[in-house]
Amino acid sequence: MAVKTPLNSFARGRKVGHDAKKKKRQSAVAQLQQWAKGKNVEIPNTK
Q1: How many CA atoms lie within 13 Å of 10's alpha carbon, on the beta-carbon side?
Q2: 18 contact partners, CB below 8 Å, separation of at least 6
């Protein structure tokens, strides 16, 4: 999970449920799996 920066320097970061990097990584993995099955899907740019 992503950690959102706190409002002051004494508090900890709050964990939030939405993580853009994780969503992008999961969709890339799903596309690679479809490509491995032989579906007509472009290979995602994973870098």
Answers
A1: 0
A2: 2
Between the alpha carbon of residue 33 and those of residues 20, 22, 40, the distances in Å are: 20, 16, 11
CA pair distance 8, 19, nearest whole angstrom: 22
- Rounded Cα distance between 30 and 14, Å, is 29
pLDDT, tens digit, for every residue of 10-33?
Answer: 777 667 778 888 888 898 888 888
Q: Is the separation of the CB atoms in 19 and 13 below 8 Å?
A: no
pTM over the 0.85 mark: no
